[in-house]
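cron nightly-structures :: item 1 of 1
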Amino acid sequence: MHEAYVYGGLRTPFGKVGGALAGQRPDDLAALVMSSLVDRAPGLEMSEAGEAVGEVIFGNANGAGEENRNVARMSWLLAEGPVTVPATTVNRLCGSSLDAAITGARQVVLAETDLVLVGGVESMSRAPWVLPKTDRPYPLKNMELVNSSLGWRLINDRMPKEWTVSLGEATEQLREKHGITRERQDEFAAESHQRAAEAWEQGRYDDLVVSVPEVELAPDETIRQGTTTEKLSGLRTVFRRGNGTVTAGNASPMNDGASAAWIGSERAAAILGAAPQARIAGWAAAANEPQYFGEAPVEAANRALAKAGITWKDIGAVELNEAFAAQSLACLDAWGFGAEHDPAIVNAWGGAIAIGHPLGASGTRILATLARRLQETGARWGVATLCIGVGQGLAVVLENTN
């Protein structure tokens, strides 16, 4: 059994739906972060990757459009990677690329390989409209196109209705369950934008982001510098009228982007010509009722910490993917942040409400950001975690190798 390490990662800037990256195919975005990751490895050339890289594992939540036919394999070939390197695509919706990283870590731990390239990609702009096949030939009734960008589609009639509410309505139910106010949500969202804008200004993302050729995009397109709680409080609710609290301002936007990271054994340091940033000390998945998907990271992170042999008191940095402010606050309250633990260590460089959430790419974004934060702050332990539609959560615990 080997130890598995994160050797660093990178991503594209995240564009808003219909924005700067809408003209970029998802397989091209994925190819870009793959080739860029290889180029940035001092000891590795793409021509040598056939023997050095055991596998390419990428996450994608849609799979219905230009990222079909195993986008990991297609993108690796577009990146001009050696054809002898196998590749696979995994789908755990919002957790897809973190799942890819966990899958890669398992291969390393089991000594199947010393180096895996993991990541994820999503173009919510280019997700297709889909038309189901008819039950019989020559139907006389009209057929309805379905938008495959986000959420439930083509639902099985046997699925309980309480499970298949929209993500926003599910979040409204979650905040009612935990008594989370609109004011807290807007405060949390404003801070996400402020932290992200400050991190970009301070150069925190300079080495974590690769520019997309012929696209002027920096910082991430959905960051709103100068956003305040007062401004956000004036936005109308989206999913409920009257007693609703979830708005476009306190929820993550729809985005396009790609991310990637190296997962390897100790021997991978010689292959890449670089030292590892963090040891993967534990990981876990958890599941609950689909409508309460937002709180699933609570149990996932608790399990991952237990596997690493530590507690929340040991943690110095947290990357929690912000699907919604209410969902994030429910998790933080359950873990004791604000009461027992310092909330300043959570998403110190901004979160998905500001940066964006291109579904399949978010997992390795938070993983690579966490590893870099541990290096810069000197904190020993960190957690990367996110909620996943249909009631799941994933978490990874990292230990700073320094």
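cron nightly-structures :: done
The radius of gyration is 20 Å.
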